[in-house]
């Protein structure tokens, strides 16, 4: 996977339930559960620095200040008929169409 958010901008990860959004975010922040999952190959570059090489103490300084995730509370999740949920669905569809067109 590749993510290229612009400098000083936020990036969102959207997808269907169970598609790996949370696991991806936990992996990027090096918060995978011990013994169950691990990073085998690759880099996680933050401002050009591979944070996979940082110590746990250094990662604690990075998390929350430079990289973080916001979990959606299932009790307050978007209602499909709401304006914001419909807008998000439209935007996600547009992104999928643009990416598909770029591959063609």
Question: Describe it for me?
Answer:
The chain is mainly α and 104 residues long. The chain folds into 2 domains: 12-71, no CATH class; 74-104. It is 35% helix and 4% strand. The chain contains 3 helices and 2 strands. The model is unreliable at 98-104 (pLDDT under 50).
Short characterization:
By secondary structure, the protein is mainly alpha-helical. Helices cover 35% and strands 4% of the residues.
Proportion of beta-strand residues: under 5%
- Please state the structural category: mainly alpha
Largest sheet: 2 strands, antiparallel
Q: Helix coverage percent of residues? A: 25-40%
What is the number of E strands? 2
Tell the overall outline: globular
Which features characterize this protein?
single chain; 104 residues; mainly alpha; 2 domains; two-stranded antiparallel ribbon; 3 helices; 2 strands; disordered C terminus
């Amino acid at each position: 996977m590749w993510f290229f958010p612009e400098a000083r901008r936020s990036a969102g990860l959207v997808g269907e339930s169970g598609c790996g959004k949370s696991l991806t975010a936990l992996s990027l922040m090096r918060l995978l559960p011990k013994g169950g999952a691990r990073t085998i190959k690759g880099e996680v570059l933050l401002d050009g620095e591979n944070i996979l090489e940082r110590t746990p103490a250094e990662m604690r300084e990075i998390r929350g200040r430079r990289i973080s995730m916001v979990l959606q509370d299932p009790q307050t999740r978007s209602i499909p008929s709401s304006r914001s949920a419909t807008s998000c669905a439209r935007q996600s569809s547009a992104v999928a169409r643009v990416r598909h067109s770029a591959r063609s």
